[in-house]
């Protein structure tokens, strides 16, 4: 005999072998393509843009949502030979809006530089010395003050003697 057990928010159903032998009477309902809560993808069956698609990453909402929708709609419905070529002003408006909110819309180079700085904290000091001119002492001979005895090759020690 099967039975149920409640544990907090979970309901555990124990079934017997006999319960599994009888065919299921569950009815499957076909997906409704007009269901607004059903995940449709970026383009709806009627050709419209699904602004609720998770693939847009929330770009259709937020402070620059209307500019994004204008630019994306223009591109999507473009009939020009070079698709979207008439949409440059819309994309420029969107970009200008996004530049007002760098914390919400970081630039690609901002992402790369922040991820490099996080992964290599010494990179900032290396970058600051790369463009500097070397002093005459460092041009003439490499400094050995930072070298350990095991990092010196036999030819280095022969040349020093």
Q: How is this structure best described in words?
A:
- GO terms for molecular function: protein-disulfide reductase activity.
- Residues 64-100 form the CHCH domain.
- Pfam families: CHCH.
- It is a single chain.
- With 161 residues, the protein is mainly alpha-helical.
- It has a domain at 42-107: Helix Hairpins.
- It is built from seven helices and two strands, in the order ββααααααα.
- The chain has helices spanning 17-21, 65-76, 88-99, 108-119, 123-130, 136-140, 154-160, and strands spanning 3-7, 10-14.
- It is elongated, with a radius of gyration of 32 Å.
Strand content: 5-15%
Reading the helices and strands in chain order gives: EEHHHHHHH
The strand line-up of the biggest sheet is 1-2
The level of helicity is 25-40%
Give short descriptive properties of this protein.
161 residues, 7 helices, mainly alpha
Present the secondary structure layout.
Elements: E1 3-7, E2 10-14, H1 17-21, H2 65-76, H3 88-99, H4 108-119, H5 123-130, H6 136-140, H7 154-160
Antiparallel strand pairs: 1-2
Helix pairs in contact: 2-3
Q: Can you describe this structure in just a few lines?
A:
This protein is mainly α.
